[in-house]
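Fold this sequence, please.
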Amino acid sequence: MNRRLCIVHANCQGAPLIERLKTCPEFSDRFECRLFTNYVREPIPDDILRRCSLFLYQHLGSHWDDMASASLLSKLPEAAHSLCIPNMFFTGYWPTWSSKPGFDYRCEHLDALVALGLPAEETIILALHTDMATEFDLAARLEKTFAQEHDREAHTPIPYIHIIREHYRDVQLFNTINHPGPMLMNHVATGVLRELGFTPPDENVLNALGDPFPEFEQPINPKVAEAFGLSFGGPKQEYEVYGRKMTFARWVANYVSARQAGVSDFIGYLTGADITA
């Protein structure tokens, strides 16, 4: 049986979505998926687009130029079906996350402390004892990330923000700001299949796939966890950090050590031998 081409134009969430879609026999029998990674601007050749039967995409605005969703949609065959899929992003667990380039998993709070030029031990103590609720308007930052997600959700017929609002305190829904856990990834896959007219697999089938991003969980500041009333994120919780288990305190020690050493590749540092294990 000749399967039709399904192009998935997405970020890191694309691969675990495909894995989940393939658990549906109706989908896997009909479509062969090809993933094109949007944030690295991986080009999709026009001849590939012309053969596309199903285009699953995360919305990209006009500032993405030829990678913009509108541009790509205009190149699809008239008979092709397209569906905008969620692009989930949540800073609620990491309210001091920074998008400033030059360092992975950047934190404005830790960067400000490192900038003081104090010894590492003193910097770490300050970081661990900062009253985050007093220092930062955590409630406002939480509502800001929800508002940004409402704007993202407006592009897709698959709602998901209600799950974050309902469960973010009792289930760790994200491993990093853009790495959602099983509950959200399974929800999106189910929504996509239903939008396409397929019967989603049993919940147990999707759950058996496990964590879509198991290699890394960014530690959560226990002071943030306390302020939001999270059922997780305490000072003794250990997180998966590229093959090592690490508490938030150990994470801070490594962050400070790397920043003070002028390291730019923090992921490389975390996976290397110099890490403060």
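Residues 238 and 246 are 5 Å apart (CA to CA). The chain has two domains: 4-85+178-207, 108-137+215-271.
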